[in-house]
Every structure is written in structure tokens, then in C-alpha cells.
Specification:
Layout (H helix, E strand, L loop, with lengths): L1 H20 L7 H29 L7 H25 L1 H11 L10
Length: 111
């Protein structure tokens, strides 16, 4: 337990020093692409749900069952697409995924 506490203190001190010493940086292009993609997917999927809700609440038009089903599928697609966007646009996630799937297995496993 003592060694764990020492390690935590070391990590905290090392990270604090790094943050203080690092120069202020702007947003990376990859971060901008990621946020833009996530926001665009959110607006596309939830915007349709908001449209249906407004139409039904104010009785502007009749929303068919097929439309409701399609828009519900879009909401589910949002949950599916977000992890994929992160996986394709975040370098650290790509690196960890490659490391996970590209590990070489030894020919002989010794017990």
C-alpha cells in the first residue's frame, strides 16, 4: 500500500510539473474534426426527433409510423456512430486498438 501511495504522489507531481511547464497550445486539427463530427451526428440524429416532437405537439402534420420508426433508428444510430467516430479520429484510441489486435502470439505457450 505504501508503494502505491508513493507512486500516486510521484505521478501527481510529475503531471503537475508538466502541465505548468507546457506552453499554451491551440486546438489540434484532429480535435476540431472529432468535435465537428460528433456535433454533426448529434444534430442530424436528434434534430429529426425534435422535428417530430414539434410536429406532434403543435399538430402541424401527421407523422406516420414509418417516419417514427426511421427517426427512432436514427437515434439508435447516434449511439452506434459515436464510438466509431472516436475510434477513427482519436489517435490514442487508434494506437491502443492496434496494440490490442496486433499482438503477436508465441508459437509455444509454456505452463
Amino acid at each position: 500500500m505504501s508503494s502505491l501511495l508513493v507512486q500516486v504522489r510521484f505521478n501527481q507531481a510529475a503531471n503537475s510539473a508538466t502541465i505548468v511547464k507546457s506552453p499554451r497550445m491551440g486546438l489540434k486539427a484532429s480535435t476540431v474534426r472529432l468535435v465537428t463530427a460528433v456535433v454533426a451526428i448529434f444534430v442530424a440524429t436528434y434534430g429529426t426527433e425534435i422535428y417530430i416532437t414539434i410536429c406532434e405537439t403543435f399538430q402541424l402534420r401527421e407523422v406516420t409510423v414509418a417516419e417514427q420508426t426511421a427517426f427512432s433508428l436514427l437515434l439508435m444510430a447516434n449511439s452506434v456512430l459515436n464510438p466509431l467516430v472516436y475510434a477513427f479520429l482519436k489517435e490514442d484510441i487508434k494506437r491502443e486498438t492496434r496494440a490490442l489486435f496486433c499482438r503477436r502470439k508465441s508459437a509455444h505457450v509454456k505452463p
